[in-house]
Amino acid sequence: MRKHNSKKMGMSLIKKVTFLVLFSTFLFSCKSLPENSKSKVNSLDLLDYSNNFYLSIPTNVDPDLIKKILKSNVSGLSESDTKQILDRVSHTYIGLTRNWKNTTIQAAADVNIPVKFIPSLLTAKKGWERKSFTAENPSTKYEIYSQNNMDIAFPAGSNCCFGANMDFMLQKYNDIYNTPADTVIEDKASVLPDSIYDWLSQGEDVIRFYTINPQTYLSMLIGTSINLQLKNVWGEIKPDPANSKMLILDFVFEFKSELVKKAGQALLTYTFALTNPEITSESATVLKVSGIQLPKEQLYKLLVL
Question: pTM value?
Answer without folding.
Answer: 0.82
